[in-house]
Amino acid sequence: MGIRLEKPWEHLNSEAIAALPGQLGVYQVADEEGNVLSVGYAGAKHLFGIRSALEEELSLHKDTAKFFRCEFTSNYRSRWDELLMLHLHDNGELPPHQRDEESRVGRLSPD
Amino acid sequence: MDYRLSEEQQLIVDTTRRFVESEIVPLEDELDPDAGSLLPADYDRLVGKTQSMGFYGLDIPEEYGGPGLDTTTRALMAIEMSQHRAGLYNPCYGVFGGAGLAQLYEATEEQKERWLYPTLRGEKKGCFALTEPSGGSDPARAIQTRGFKDGGEWVLSGAKLYISGADKADYALIFARTSDDPGRNGVTAFIVDTDTPGFHVRRVVHTLRATHYATELQFDEMRVPEDNILGEVNGGFAIANDRLSRQRIPYAAGCIGPAIKAQEMAIDWAKNRETFGSALAEKQAIQWMVVDNEIDIRHAKYCVLEAAQKADRGDRFRTEAAMAKLVATEASSRVVDRCIQIHGGVGVTKDLPLERWYRELRIRRVGEGPSEVQRLIMARDILGGSFK
Fold first, then answer.
1. Is residue A96 in some structural domain?
2. Would the pTM count as exceeding 0.80?
3. Distances in Å between the alpha carbon of B15 and those of B9, B22, B54?
4. Are the C-beta atoms of A89 and A110 separated by less than 8 Å?
């Protein structure tokens, strides 16, 4: 199993979000060019899981956030950390919306 | 055995309990159910409180500035500190401070300056790398990471598995085989800075403990100075083993807190929840579960306190520590399982901490030596050394 989230991007809009199940998991949101803007998770505090988390992303960043992809998992906290570490390894910095997390994210050298 | 608490111990227990109830639980209500940390501002504020209470750095020896608690008092505190959702693996979210790697107290003064003191000041983090893909229950024989001397340096190659905190550590305590001896006499402990070329955190290992992860490490011909050896060449397993024995008492004590809290929740639920025209607490099936819980909790607590008191007296406590670890992990698992059953549907939801304790307690029966290894340790002591 690949450890990166490499599913095809889907358009981030209300219709696509409404079609998602209300499960817990992790997601990435990207801009028009497919650059990852944020890596997030939907935890038990999100009323309808991934759906609620992505609705929040859309309302906060609707001008720049154009695509998303997600993965359903009950290990959303450790998978979220893993995706952030992978992003840091691949890009040398965290996604723009999460630069302030840098001090707490670990180092991974997966290749 | 005298299980009565001294006045000082009772004061410490009461203070710790109030701290958990008034400072930790209200913050936790706002966090994700699988959260592993407090907000930085809350963490800093509470560290300030534990420092002013004189309780910061509980496991730091008194000569290094710790509060100098005996094992029994420390175990009593562990029982209280774990009575919240994250309490099993992250009692009070670490606001009582850590002690660093206990093995470093045996280091040379130069090594202490480089790794121990910065760790105690919160400037560096370390991780403990013993278990390998080849096995963890019998580490002395399972270690395949090799070290050979090349001039004034040692060259380490191999892999480690289920290592916590390696991705954020500044240094690692790594155990490697350094002689042809296939057992405990061929293992050396090395302190290795994690920015050493050849040190790789290859992957995250997800477990039942969803809030946290372990890691898999790979060492590709890491060159480590001779000065980084902790203790003697080929004397590393004794250093690892000492930790494994000492850890068992607080490890066991920390399992009892969630069981106590789960039992309190189940009793409250059983008294107030009605089915078939009467409270759950009036049903014999529930009453027996509550009683079995109480037996398990007291049994675990007595085993932990007996081991702790023996340790404090300077008596041999290996059998008692193994028994405490086995009984506390297994009994607390049973208690939380019954409490979920008493709660019914809500018991398996993330609305309550029971499901997190249930998942995490399952790991406790494996971590720090599984139940079977604890039985093996006790069997050796009971039957005598020839039955190994």
1. yes
2. yes
3. 10, 10, 12
4. yes
Decide: helix, strand or coil at residue B275.
Answer: strand
Asked if A45 has any chain B CB less than 8 Å from its own CB, the reply is: yes
d(CA B222, CA B216): 16
Residue B8 annotated to the active site: no
Tell whether A66 is covered by a domain.
yes
Q: Is the dihedral of CA A18, A19, A23, A27 positive or negative?
A: negative
What does DSSP assign to residue B233? T
Flag whether A2 is in a domain.
no
Q: Which residues pair with B177 in a beta bridge?
A: B146, B187
> Domain containing A60: what range?
10-100
Domain count, chain A: 1
pLDDT at B386 (0 to 100): 60
Asked if residue A4 is part of any domain, the answer here is: no
What is the predicted pLDDT for the residue at B273? 97
For residue A61, the domain's CATH number is: 3.40.1440
CB pair distance less than 8 Å for B167 and A107: yes
State the count of interchain CB pairs (< 8 A) between A and B.
60
Instruction: Indicate the SS3 state at residue B229.
Output: strand
Which ipTM value was assigned to this complex?
A: 0.88
For chain B, which ranges sit under pLDDT 70?
A: 242-244, 246, 385-388
Structure tokens at A16: 């696509």
Catalytically annotated residue among B7, B330, B368, B372: B368
Intervals of chain A under pLDDT 50: none
B35–A109 C-beta distance less than 8 A: no
pLDDT of residue B66: 87
Q: Answer whether B149 touches A (CB < 8 Å).
A: no
